[in-house]
């Protein structure tokens, strides 16, 4: 007979701790995956039995043999830090000394205004409004997908982005040209929500803290996603049938295909719209601090990268060949 008081398995403990800290489902999946890979790399030894040597070995393996991107190695490092600190209650003060995967210095891909116009013209109807809003506000992909009805202030033409990168809220402009299209879009979304309610559904996902504080908020109109999925789905954590937001992979594919259809030769992703937003604002003469605030960058140095892709032809220097013309 199984011991009812037996301690949960390590990965179950890790999952429970992640949920207790209200981390996203995406983070939960990533952290669990890295924990499994770390354990398998060391022939299924328990992390409690391992320490500095094994962690350094795994992270160095990722950097040197697997040649993963710096961001990927940092993700693995964060997952192991969480596992040891939050589950095993072991501090790792030396972890920052581990060999880092070198982060290549690459300039962001930026479209011209003409290219943006052509790209947006080829985005399919299901994603067209979202794509235009992302370019018009500089939002990240998930920031756009997670917008709630209450985040749009039509009277002030403002948009509230909740819990952006780093868990920070920020306010950005709501493009005047999208006020009416968004209002018309929300009428359709509201009709679909009311139909869901009549069928016994109509609930949207909320964080545990919000759900505890406002038990009925999940069915209220103001908490619904601005860009909901066309289909209901079962939440794998709770088993509740809800209407989630649009699938991020769907938008990624739509933008990629729109770039092909528009004849663009650049490597275009949804994030390219954010890069283009920032660059075009700087081209228009807006102060870099203003652009920093709109993008939600913690450090202005992050925003400064866009000054290197302004359309000035090699740092504004005229080629000597052109002087001969």
Automatic annotation (TrEMBL):
Chief subcellular location: cytoplasm
Entries under Pfam families matching the protein: Phage_int_SAM_4, Phage_integrase
Localization terms from the record: Cytoplasm
Assigned keywords, A-Z: Cytoplasm, DNA integration, DNA recombination, DNA-binding
Record domain Core-binding (CB): where: 5-88
CDD domains: INT_IntI_C
The family this protein is said to belong to: Belongs to the 'phage' integrase family.
Role description: Site-specific tyrosine recombinase, which acts by catalyzing the cutting and rejoining of the recombining DNA molecules. The XerC-XerD complex is essential to convert dimers of the bacterial chromosome into monomers to permit their segregation at cell division. It also contributes to the segregational stability of plasmids.
Name of the protein in its database record: Putative transcriptional regulator, TetR family
Organism: Trichlorobacter lovleyi (strain ATCC BAA-1151 / DSM 17278 / SZ) (Geobacter lovleyi)
């Amino acid at each position: 007979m199984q011991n009812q008081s037996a301690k949960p398995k390590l990965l179950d403990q890790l999952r429970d701790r992640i949920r207790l800290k209200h981390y996203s489902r995406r983070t939960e999946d990533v952290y669990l995956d890295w924990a499994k890979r770390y354990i398998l790399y060391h022939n299924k030894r328990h992390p409690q039995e391992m320490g500095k040597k094994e962690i350094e070995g795994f992270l160095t393996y990722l950097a040197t043999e697997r040649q993963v991107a710096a961001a990927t190695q940092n993700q693995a490092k964060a997952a192991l830090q969480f596992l040891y600190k939050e589950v095993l209650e072991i501090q790792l003060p030396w972890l920052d000394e581990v060999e880092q995967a070198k982060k290549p210095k690459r300039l962001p891909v930026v479209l011209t205004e003409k290219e943006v116009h052509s790209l947006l013209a080829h985005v399919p109807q299901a994603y067209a409004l979202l794509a235009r809003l992302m370019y018009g506000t500089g939002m990240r992909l998930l920031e756009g997908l997670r917008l709630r009805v209450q985040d749009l202030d039509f009277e002030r033409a403002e948009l509230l982005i909740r819990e952006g990168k780093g868990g920070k809220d920020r306010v950005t402009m709501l493009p005047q040209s999208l006020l009416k299209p968004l209002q018309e879009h929300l009428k359709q979304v509201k009709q679909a929500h009311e139909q869901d309610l009549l069928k016994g559904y109509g609930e949207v996902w909320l964080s545990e803290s919000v759900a505890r504080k406002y038990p009925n908020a999940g069915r209220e109109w103001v908490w619904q996603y601005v860009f909901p999925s066309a289909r209901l789905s079962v939440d794998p954590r709770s088993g509740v049938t809800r209407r989630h937001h649009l699938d991020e992979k769907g938008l990624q594919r739509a933008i990629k295909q729109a770039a092909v259809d528009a004849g663009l030769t650049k490597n275009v992703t949804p994030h390219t719209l954010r890069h283009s937003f920032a660059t075009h604002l700087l081209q228009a003469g807006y102060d870099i601090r203003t652009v920093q605030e709109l993008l939600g960058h913690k450090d202005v140095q992050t925003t400064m990268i866009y000054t290197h892709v302004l359309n000035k032809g090699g740092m504004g220097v005229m080629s000597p060949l052109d002087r001969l013309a």
